[in-house]
Write a structure and sequence with these properties.
Layout (H helix, E strand, L loop, with lengths): L1 H17 L6 E6 L5 H12 L8 E6 L2 E5 L5 E4 L12 E5 L4 E7 L1
The structure holds zinc ion.
Zinc ion binds next to loops.
Length: 106
């Protein structure tokens, strides 16, 4: 499962940064294609037995960067979001990371 690898790298990055200190909360941002339920399950199995075992996990949605075809306005949103300036169609110019660590606390 794709989410498993993403969750594992997030867990190991935070575990390394916290140097074994128990981590209380983690906020992750997931791109639109990531299944949050699968990623949460993957997180729990990756975190089991580490200092992130009892972490409270919360999720945000990572936005893509789009540019409008009609007026060239750049905006953050999901793949099919219309331009907030003129309502036209936008093209994704920079996709969000699939899974990014926003913040964590010990
Ligand atoms: Zn526009």
């Amino acid at each position: 499962m794709h989410e498993a690898g993403l969750a594992r790298s997030a867990v190991s990055a935070i575990a390394e940064a916290s140097e074994g200190t128990p981590v209380r909360t983690v906020v992750l941002a997931a791109a639109a294609g990531v299944d949050i339920a699968s990623a949460t399950a993957a997180w729990q199995s990756a975190a089991a037995g580490t200092c992130l075992e009892n972490t409270h996990l919360s999720w945000q949605h990572a936005a893509d960067r789009l540019r409008c075809f009609t007026c060239a306005h750049e905006y953050d949103g999901a793949r099919l979001d219309p331009c907030p300036s003129c309502g036209g169609n936008g093209l994704v110019v920079a996709a969000a990371d699939e899974l990014a660590v926003v913040s964590w606390t010990t």
